Amino acid sequence: MATAVCARCKATVPADNTDITLDGIVCRACQIAAAGDDKELTKLERQLRVSSGTREVIVGVFLLVLGGALLALGASVGIIAAMPIFVVGAGIYAIVRGVTRLAG
To answer: How far is 15 from 6, CA to CA, in rounded Å?
Structure first.
């Protein structure tokens, strides 16, 4: 049977009695103890916001680069299409939303 080491209490437990969280692998006993701890829940919520904000910023930068490349390609041929403009707009929106999550 596979075993894992809990990131919080350092106990070796069966792998099917663990969950993977932002802190690492956590056993059921630590999860139950953390469920009643408001500080722990606040910390996990903050980590989730930062994680999702970071992902949104990455996606926004990707969309911005993709839309800029499509606009440049279209401009070189003499055609300006609406789709690259919307992709750039979506990239800017995702960056702003991600930065807002990171700041909050």
So the answer is: 10
Secondary structure (3-state) at 14 = strand
Can you give the pTM of this predicted structure?
A: 0.61
CA dihedral 66, 68, 73, 77 (to 10 degrees): 150
Quick one: tokens of 4? 């894992």
Residues 3 and 26 in one domain: yes
Residue with token string 């630590």: 30
For the stretch 70-80, pLDDT in tens is: 999 888 888 88
Residue 11 lies in a domain: yes
Do residues 52 and 63 lie in contact, with contact meaning Cβ atoms separated by under 8 Å?
A: no
Domain of 94? Answer: 48-104
